[in-house]
Amino acid sequence: MAERLPDGNEQNLQQFVNQSTWDPVPVRRRIAERMVPLIGPDAWAVDDVSFPKDGKMSVAVAHQYCGALGKQANCQVAVSVHAVSDAASCPLNWRLFVPKEWADDVRRRHRTGMPPEAGHREKWRLALDGLDELAGWGLVPPVVVADAGYGQNADLRDGLNSRGIGYVVAVRSDVTVHPHDAQPTAPAWSGNGRKPQPRYRNKPSSVAALAVGVASLEVVYGF
């Protein structure tokens, strides 16, 4: 951006962005509102964005998995929501992930200017927060996609379902599930004691076992 201005000063621009007390939300909202119709996304992707760092004084930096390096490393991590298609991708919203170790580190919080209200929040909650903010701007995803780092979290899937958001997410093969047509049932109440609550009567199976069973039916019956 600084290079495009005739009198652009990169250092001054960086200072404006990271130290000035301006509200970034209207800028983020305008980006999202402009880019969604331009991209015409097939889906919104929820994922981690990582920034390798040296030292310990960058806000929320910690030794954690760094996707940019493909290993555990010293980095910052943000939870992002991207509009994606076969031809384009653009971040619509993002939240900086604050590791637990920063919650009570008064010294680092003070030295980095971290606001008191900024604390640890699980990544799946940050993802839903970002989607809720976008919904408040009148933007609704065609479908949400995510890798197993998010998809295996039942709370995230429940949160998407309760918001009426369709999703396609990856899960590990050892996650236990019930068939799509399984229904929780409750036995007849005798009238004495606590009324029985509905629950699944059959034990769940792993995703891998369920997939093998479906594949076997396709072979036998030609589904």
What would you say this structure looks like, in words?
The protein has 223 residues and is of the alpha/beta class. It folds into two domains: 138 residues, no CATH class; 51 residues, no CATH class. Helix content is 33%, strand content 21%. The chain is built from seven helices and eight strands, in the order H-H-E-E-E-E-H-H-E-H-H-E-E-E-H. Strands 1, 2, 3, 4, 5 and 6 form a six-stranded mixed beta sheet that branches. The protein has a two-stranded antiparallel sheet with strand order 7-8. Helix 4 runs parallel beside helix 6. The longest helix has 15 residues. The protein is globular and about 80 Å long. The C terminus is likely disordered.
Average pLDDT, rounded to a whole number, is: 89
Instruction: Report on the biggest sheet.
Output: 6 strands, mixed
Note the overall shape: globular
Note the quaternary state here: single chain
Number of E-state strands:
8
Alpha-carbon distance between the two ends: 56 Å
SSE pattern, N- to C-terminal = HHEEEEHHEHHEEEH
In helices, the fraction of residues equals: 25-40%
Radius of gyration: 23 Å
What portion of the residues fall into strands of 2 or more residues?
15-25%
User: Low-confidence segments, ≥5 residues, pLDDT <50?
Assistant: 219-223
Overall structural class, as computed from helix and strand content, comes to alpha/beta
